[in-house]
Amino acid sequence: MKALFRKKSLQALMAQAEEKEHSLKRTLGAMNLTLLGVGGIIGAGIFVLTGQAAAQYAGPAIVLSFIISAAGCAFAGLCYAEFASMIPIAGSAYTYSYATIGELLAWIIGWDLILEYLFGAATVSVGWSGYVTSFLRDFGVNIPYALSSAPFSFDHVAGWASTGAIINLPAVLIIAAVTGLLVIGISESATVNDIAVAVKVVVVILFIAFGAAYVNSANWHPFIPANTGTFGQFGWSGIARGAGVIFFAYIGFDAVSTAAQEARNPQRDMPIGILSSLAICTVLYILVALVLTGIVKYDQLLVPDPIAVGVNAAGQGLFWLRKFIKIGAIAGLSSVMLVLLLGQPRIFYSMSLDGLLPPFFSKVHPRFRTPHITTMVTGAVAALLGGLFPIGALGEMVSIGTLLAFAIVCVSIIVLRRTHPELARPFKTPLVPLVPALGAAICIAQMGFLPWATWLRLIIWMAVGMAIYFFYGRHHSKLAEARVDSWNK
Question: Could you give the maximum distance between any two Cα atoms of the chain, in Å?
Answer without folding.
Answer: 80
